[in-house]
Fold these 3 entries.
Entry 1:
Amino acid sequence: MSKGVNIYEIMQRFWRENEYEPFSTAEIALYFFLINRANSRRWQMPFKCPTSVISTAIQVTRQTVVNTRESLRIRNFITYTKGTGKGSHPLYSLVLTDNLTECLPEELTETLPVSSTVDLSDSLTPYNIEDRNIKDKNYSSIKTGDVKILSLEELEVLLVNDELWLNEIITLLSPSCQIELPDLKLYLGNFFRYLRCQGTKGREEDDCRRYFVNWIKKQPINKNKTTLKPTIHATNQPSNDARRPAGVTAKSATDYEGAF
């Protein structure tokens, strides 16, 4: 018996993340291509793979491959190193955790045809048998195997009190989207209301944290607001127009009666 990779757990994690924030068609194609590639190399990572090969295999442009692999890296599914020129191809690794590896017979990790990955991904549900109906359960801190599922109420209390983590998120946001800690906590409350509206009852802590980071980065946050100063005259004249505006003295319709 050797240390192998639990492909079912890998795909289960992928589709569970997809429920939080759907992956694009290109992201799905690239991820399962890399699973097949890693499996054919018996999970010896990192492994080389030319961008042109990936582009041809999943039928997208080279630039789409570049953008897609970065998206998967941000969502903590892969890591990669860019190629440095002709003959130096990019290196890829799939991000694996302890529960994604297990002791398997050597022959089970030798090959995995592309058709198999498609069939398996179609037949697998986002959850295993024990927690597939998680949205219909009323529970608190249910532990499924090695994965601890917390209720939204528990997660909200845990995350809102983790001010060190929240401050790290603030530093992650771009300068044009800076907000204060109390405002970020309000966004966190809106995030959990959003999950409840989706019918979600509970999630893993790490998944919830990752989803919130992705969610907050897409919110229209803009703290660089300027206060408009009141103008003396009611006019549509641009502020940079140096000409003296014509004052309007009429206060009612009757002021316009009479000859002009």
Entry 2:
Amino acid sequence: MIDLDGLSNNWIGTDKGLSVITNSGVYNFTEENGFESGKVNSLKSLSDNWVHIGTAGGGVKRLKYNGIDAITSASEIITTWSGLASDSVLTIYVTDDTLRWYGTTEGVSTHFGSEDTKDINYWGRYNNITSGIIDNYVRAIIRDNYGNMWFGTRGGLSKLSPDKSSWQSFTEQDGLISNNIFDLEVDSNNNLWIATDKGVSYLTNLSVSVHQKGPIDYQIKLTNYPNPYNPETKIDYTIPKSGKVKLEVFNIQGSLIKVLVDKTQNAGNYQVLFSGDNIPSGIYLYRLTTERSSITKKMVLIR
């Protein structure tokens, strides 16, 4: 892969390391000269000309050419002292609000702003336990013109709504030529192009199914009241189509606490009572999953 920084330097990542072509010469970084985990999976130049390099096992390296004759390095981003989900980073995407998205072999991590990457409060994480993403092995990330975030994985395609409250996924059953996705691109007409191991699929204007199979309306709704609660809360949800439904509760670390619903249900409105009698105070996640969508919300138990 190749990326160009703001000073017109070419950064080239390979399976053996990194090369930087500048006006003063070529700089090479490999395992032999201290560039740990030499294989480069992804590159992304930021607006301040720092280049983030996603590696296969070494986390994210951060380098910058000084414009004259040297490469400067900053502390690496690794799981030991950051919110990075895995040290194998497959893709890096930066939105215009400086939010950085790292697709890894264990899900997606986000970091906001320029604050210290060692402060866990500036990190977020999405995986198939704590969110509706279809698979944790994330090779491609992009945002469309409506603000939706799209994630290409080896298990299919997932979309996160602009308010980050709901998920929708697409697989071969919806018309994808393959679930094994390597790259995503949004064109000027807001069509999403999906590169897979078997060819290319696309979503037209991101409002219809793959290959224009027809409109999709799989909007599901989820809320609870009271929130915060003690000791019980009512979880209300709406499903627009009949099918398999699962409602689960997790702690903030992603460990499953209880399965409240796991069965086929008709379209309609439902309510489930959840009791916090046997769990400690804190933040909990509750996730509703149907055959086409998923929503994860937070609730707080206060003793």
Entry 3:
Amino acid sequence: MSRAYAVGPEARAALAVLLLELQDALDEPWTLETMAARVGYDPSHFARAFQTVVGQPPLRWLRTLRLERAAHDLVFAPARPLQVVAEEAGYASHEAFRRAFVRAFGVPPSAMRRRPRGLRGAAPRPQGALQGRPEGLSAAPEIVRFGPLASAVSVVATRFDDAAIAEAWRRLYALPSPASAWELAAASPPWGFTRPGRPREYRCIRLGYGEKAPPGFSPWRMQAGWFARFRYEGTTPGIHALMTWIFRDWLPGSALRWRFAPVVTLFDPEAWHASRFQRSRCAVHVPVQSLGGRGREMS
């Protein structure tokens, strides 16, 4: 009987950072050697440590991540052709992609697109101490079951910069005022935080809007799943610092990883109105699952 392969805290921390980088750069031509070099280990030691921590060999894990991204794109990019999604996941034929997708999620890609499924299973449990908490974070994050959410009214910023995002919010604010707090939300894919420069999307959402959507707005939906909730009250620009801390510091130290689902931030507009948008009160929801967990338990 072989002994379990021991992985020390420093190696686990290095692997956690690499795992986030892999999720953020799935289109790079990763090999066992390039991954091992990124964390400073020889390929043999790296492969055994990776298997111990993640539960899969490195290259199989890459295939898993690419299938999870494909499942995300089927739901949140409904106009993208299935063949394109398959090619981006690394499959030359639709049939090979379909077989791999069914093995991973239990349903074919077309069914996932028609009826998106939320993630079930036990709540992930973060590990490690909360270090370097950014200003404005009011408490330690909570792991919560969040969603599903749906809205008939959302607008995507034309660019991922302050001016375009402000213009998107102005368009949303032209609608009648929300009936209650927390009906304004923002959603963006959970990538680009560890590797700046990736194309990003920022979507402004009005929840609880009961009237017919005016022209120029699009529907939006999100399935239920496990999220880490971060409650924040502070300067509006400080939200970016909070996001950076979550993805670069908190996640690698928590033994969790982000799922391929939107980061959703709920806002209390009263804080904006009282400060002329200089301060924000919000709850940031980051989709998470256990390190090595797969998105196959769908409901």
